[in-house]
Amino acid sequence: MYNLAELTQRHDEELNFLIAKLEILKKKSALNPYEAKVMITELLWGRQFLMSGNQKVEAIKFYEDDLREAYIQARDICNPIENKNPNLPVYIRINTLTISIEDTLNAFYKEGWNLLPRCNSYSEYLSVLQRLGERDFIRDYHISELLAFPPGTLFYNHPGYIKGKFLYQDKGSCLSSFLLNPKPDSVVFDACAAPGIKTNHLANIMNNTGLIYANDIHPLRVKKMIDLLGLTETNARILKEDFISMDYSAYADVKYILVEPSSTYSGIFYAVGARMKKVGLMRRQFVSNTMLRSALQQFPNVKRVVYTICSLYSEEGEEIIEQVMKEVGDSFTLLDIKKMLWNEWESMSQPGNICGGKCLRIVPEYDLCQGYFVAVFERNFDVPIPPYSKKLRRAGAVYDINELEKVKTVNPRGRVVEKLIPKNKAPIIEQLIKKQHAKTIKNKNQKMNKKFRQQREQRFILHKNTNVATSSATINNTNTPPVCNEEMHTITQSQLYP
């Protein structure tokens, strides 16, 4: 507890920034600032997760993804020199829907920035990034609209950033849209689009033609996406659907899909020198697996699917690809990303699995950008797509829906409910449920019996005291004829028989 209090005090400036930026106290009036600061500290710098509990804990957990994203900006503003990794440059992406690359370069030149010449190889480019001067900047080796500036450079108050002329976007984040590379006039589905930065990049690549379905399930993040995409008129149609259970038949014309599930964000935290624990990996792995299988198997006309996640853990990268490729078989081919990047990249996925070095594994200390995992799937129309099978997670294991059966049981409130339980464990679990229910009923009866005994004792004492009071009144008033006290009689009856 002392360590948590010390952490809260140490990060007070960043906490004030996060709470004010996300307007947590305004939208969640039940929270007080001290409780909010302690819970956010536990989430970001302590154990880095919150156990499900009361409404106040759930209120902070609702903002978890937004807090982790805003945390990077908070580090830059509150303490940029101490917190920033000195080897990591600052990337901004030009929004070519509002301004051309040439005009942007000229504008920075007029502000006193020095544009370095393009490099002949990727290794030379990485070497230049490590030696950027205080007023130097350079265009990215792979993505022409991406610019790299010295570490610690801030543009939050720059007119170009405020007007949406350029956006903060790390190279690791840009690569997913760059590799998806949708053709103009095509239909794209961005499964986890908020806050809309990748959607904007896709619109840039497509020259604002065709259609982009920008989908996210979180209302607050959807609102942010509307604000960001509203800076420029884009070809995006905003949706608020659950990608796992939505009606896929309405999107049969989709040709390209970008999937980026919520993750541990270990790639961002590692890039800024923070420590990230492996918390909730099994649950996140199941969600990522389900989303990727839905993208590959529920859209009959899809040509290319890109799976990307901001994580350095194989549980959220290589293991997901290995599981999904066993499901889809030869209906999809895993493309070699190194060839797509002109063989100018070194950090690839771990060898010895289905990925086989074809997927991108971005390591911040080598690639000088945030840590991401990227995989590209290409449709093989000569092989039919295997039918999608719904899976559920039970007791830490994943089961096909056909491997489960419904078992009727009675909950502690006495209501009959049905639970999906693995078939091989159903008899055992059913017996355990019955025993637990019998134990619950026994405890309930014991509580009722105890309450009944207490009420009976109270009635006996009350009745005894009433008789004593009546006898005393009779003795003290021997000369007065006995009178029936109806008021006392009424009170006594109501107390004896509530």
From TrEMBL:
Gene Ontology MF term list: RNA binding; RNA methyltransferase activity
Active-site residue numbers: 310
Pfam family, one: NSUN5_fdxn-like
InterPro entries named in the record: MeTrfase_RsmB-F_NOP2_cat, MeTrfase_RsmB-F_NOP2_dom, NSUN5_7_fdxn-like, RCMT, SAM-dependent_MTases_sf
GO biological process entries: rRNA base methylation
SUPFAM superfamilies: S-adenosyl-L-methionine-dependent methyltransferases (SSF53335)
Binding site for S-adenosyl-L-methionine: 192-198, 216, 242
Family: Belongs to the class I-like SAM-binding methyltransferase superfamily. RsmB/NOP family.
The protein, known as: SAM-dependent MTase RsmB/NOP-type domain-containing protein
Organism encoding this protein: Nasonia vitripennis (Parasitic wasp)
Higher taxonomy: Eukaryota, Metazoa, Ecdysozoa, Arthropoda, Hexapoda
